[in-house]
Amino acid sequence: MTAIAVDIPLLTLKGQQLEIGAEVKAAVSRVLDSGVYILGPENKAFDAEFAQAISVKYSLGVDSGTSALELALEAVGVGPGDEVIVPSFTFIATATAVSVLGAKPVFADVDPVTMTLDAKSVEGALSPRTKAVIAVHIFGQPCDLDPIVSLARSRKIAVIEDCAQSHLATYKGRPTGSIGDLSAFSFYPSKNLGAAGDAGAVTTNDEKLRDTINILRNCGRSAAAGYDHVRVGHNCRLDEIQAAVLRVKLLRLDAWTASRRRLAAIYDEGLAGLPLKRPPLGSESSKPVFHLYTVRTDRRDALAEDLRRHGIGTGVYYPTPVHLQPAYAALGIKRGALPVSEAASREALSLPMYPELSAADAGRVVETVRRFFK
Question: pLDDT tens digit string along 357-372?
């Protein structure tokens, strides 16, 4: 196949680097000059600033979003013999975080409109061994948490929010990451708030859970405990350079989020009337942040190829639902068990989305899509 240059990529960080590159370099230099590289003042400041940004009492930086999920699950007592309900239409780390603790992920289906965890499917997946539920705010769309939280509270089950893609999204006036018992954020470079490498955070409003996470992320000891290790822990600390970079970017997150929402509105208006499903723009009770702008069509692959021929990048997330991944073949779940998740994996196509994308380029994407369907 002849290579075709893509001049409107699915994602690029070049514009962001042009905007804030000098400040990022200054922040990195500040850390290097300080000689303090682990759990220092940048961590402390970022924890406080991020907690304030999402209206939560406590935030603790860790080395990745995957670690954030694993630590959150361990903090609520998930271990061998337990079950954790997770959506199947998600990145596999949502499930593997359960598996590495010796517990079993139990896959539930998703809502056909938002592609987030469906409460009715969760209810059908409950068992006496259920220890927790992970609600993923996929693509920056807030999950309908109230019915899930209600189910969990009635059975004394923990709710963990997977906020890897939902920085500053809100659900009924509350930021995602401030509602569950614990929440896990990823700051992978391509996220709405991204570091210069792997990074993440665990957030909570519970002081005891905060203390547990603080111990777990630091080899089983509190920050000032020296060599007294009170439990078996992990080395999952956020380094000072990443914390410093994140502090610079956090100052722009509101503006970047507003830009994403403006671009989503351009797509929504321009693609109206076509034979594809558009993601919800939001409402008074749910305000997404469009980590990705993902449409659905049964002509997904042909549309992606046509856009590529016109120099427009696209992405397919996630082409195989987790319950059908080879890693979970031993569970014996057959195709057709979770029909909405399976349909989403066949149909979902993400269009270019990043804050620096111009309205003109978004319009070009719209016109190319419209020509394809004509």
Answer: 999 999 999 999 999 9
